[in-house]
Write a structure and sequence with these properties.
Blueprint: H1 3-14, E1 19-25, H2 32-43, H3 47-60, E2 62-69, H4 70-86, E3 92-97
Antiparallel strand pairs: 1-2, 1-3
Helix pairs in contact: 2-3, 2-4
The chain binds L-tyrosinamide.
Length: 98
């Protein structure tokens, strides 16, 4: 078997999509409770884990809400941005390659 055939077969057995971090950014106005609710609703976190992530963002300026393939991550960003702007909150959410 050629080297390229071996490589193709190995990749096929281990292929995974590129993953993206969904980041939440801190701001001075979005209520803490709202950020916790976002993490529970859209990122399926427990109340305890959501509170931990929210406080991490509050103190460090940025934090990881979850890690997903591109299209799922993009959908989460859109859901968060839509929910925040519907309430008039300046919460920002972005993607970053893992
Ligand atoms: N800093 C905000 C406050 O004190 C809370 C907050 C946390 C806002 C995380 C955004 O991504 C965020 N109300």
């Amino acid at each position: 078997m050629s080297d390229s055939a071996t490589k193709t077969r190995t990749q096929a057995a281990t292929r995974t999509p590129p993953m993206y971090k969904v980041l939440l950014l801190n701001d001075d106005y979005t209520p803490m409770d709202f950020v916790v609710d976002i993490l529970v609703r859209y990122f399926k976190k427990s109340e305890l884990e959501a509170t931990r992530i929210m406080l991490q963002v509050h103190h460090a300026g940025v934090g990881v809400a979850g890690v997903y393939p591109f299209e799922i991550a993009e959908t989460k960003v859109n859901q968060v941005m839509r929910a925040a702007s519907a309430q008039g909150y300046p919460l920002q959410c972005t993607l970053e390659p893992e």
